[in-house]
Amino acid sequence: MSWDRETVAQRASGIPPATENELAALVADCRSKSESLCIAGGRTRLEANTIRAHHQLSTAALTGVIEYEPGELTIIARAGTPMTEIEALLSTQGQQLTFEPMDSRSLLGSSGSSTIGGVVATNASGPRRVIAGACRDHLLGVRFVDGAGRILKSGGRVMKNVTGLDLGKLLCGSYGTLGILTEVALKTLPVAPCQETIAFHEVNATVAVELFAKALATPFEVSGAAFHANTAWLRLEGLERQVSYRRDRVQALFGGRKTEILLEDKSRSLWRRLRDAEHFSGLDSPLWRILVKPSDAPMTVAALESLGGSASIDWGGGLIWYTGHAEGDRVRAALPAGHATLVRRGGLVASDMFQPASAPIASLSAALRRTFDPAGILNPGLMGT
Fold it and tell me: Which of 99, 117, 146, 252 has the most Cβ atoms closer than 10 angstroms to its Cβ?
């Protein structure tokens, strides 16, 4: 793919590419010169990354909703489209991205704007993951530019057309190390008309996870299970009559345990704060995002808090947020199991963002990167060499 004078001028001036073809040309040229790229979208990047690249390449100009079919429950948008635009459009039809992607701006003190491409690239998934799955489970198709400057596509625009090798699942959560997303197609679903939350006060992490396990094993469709500051919460969503019935049944599971019911606005506000981990905003300490087996959550929280700091639980025990001033090696060594990602550096300079992978996983990951990015120019060093 050759460069024209306009594209060269864009690169020299730092103007982000406005089309997929321009982006592909930029990447191809950088590969030919062995010049690496740090991929940026809405500039809300996890602060902990340590990418050292020759150039920053923004997808901010690749914006706009290409197609939205409320009746088909699908939306297709360019990767740089702000999440605020996506959410505003979906709300006009009473729909949402059910995997509930977090807004990290408050947590990271960022003034940028989250993009739909960034959500997919990081597999951003909120509290509803316990019932609805992660971002990758709602991804129908993608278009992207790989490290050789090739334009590739995978999947379809509706679920029935998703066949063959699903490269979208690889791109989802790859943090731009396999390719630069240019377009994504996602499932949408209606917003539940009624929401309530059952709060259990004065409980510890062990009791909270026991509550979660019991509630999530029922047929009552608990859509959120989180714990922070000695309070556990269970969320219920649906039609008003359904929510009322489920609330009574869930409360009956726990006998005479005292509970508080948060209705509608209070419930929705609470889960927005939990989704965005806002209770850890405004702090200067490092912040870790730790994935564990739910049954391991209590011992993991105890091990982390023994280092100082505090922790909260989401995903019924599968996700732990931890903040404290311990060195990264101590944090990771304290984990009985699991995977710790450094989300906010907070003064830590010696820790990698991602936990080092085991030898087999590292070998597989490296092979994938060589396939899609032979010269290693996309976000070098972010997820391994």
Answer: 117
- Are 234 and 250 a contacting pair, CB within 8 Å? yes
pTM reported for the whole predicted model: 0.91
Beta-carbon count within 10 A of 279 CB: 16
Query: Of 340, 326, 334, 332, which Cα lies nearest the Cα of 302?
Result: 334
Residues 6 or more apart whose Cβ sits within 8 Å of residue 1: 21, 24, 25, 28, 149
Contacts of 173 (CB under 8 A, 6+ apart): 121, 122, 123, 135, 136
Q: Which fold has domain 194-275?
A: Alpha-Beta Plaits (3.30.70)
Q: Cβ(63)–Cβ(183) under 8 Å? A: no
Q: If you average pLDDT over residues 41-53, what whole number do you get? A: 66
Tokens 């709300």 sit on residue: 91
pLDDT tens across 91-126, in order?
999 999 999 999 988 888 777 788 999 999 999 999
How many Cα atoms occupy the beta-carbon half-sphere of 16 within 13 Å? Answer: 19
Using pLDDT thresholds of 50, 70 and 90, give the confidence band for residue 15. Answer: confident
Task: Give the three-class secondary structure for 359.
Answer: helix
| Backbone φ/ψ region at 164: left (φ over 0), alpha (ψ -120 to 50), beta | left
**Measuring CA to CA, which residue among 302, 291, 289, 381 is closest to residue 344?**
289
Burial class (CB in 10 A: 0-12, 13-18, 19+), 228: buried
Residue 157 tokens, joined: 């625009």
Q: Directed axis angle between helix 5-13 and helix 20-32, to 10°?
A: 80
Does domain 1-191 match CATH 3.30.465.10?
yes
210 within 8 A of 254, measured Cβ to Cβ: no
Question: Tens digit of pLDDT for each residue in 338-379?
Answer: 899 999 888 766 678 888 888 898 899 999 999 999 999 999
For 280, half-sphere exposure in the C-beta direction (CA atoms, 13 angstrom radius) is 27
What are the residue ranges spanned by the domains of the chain?
Answer: 1-191, 194-275
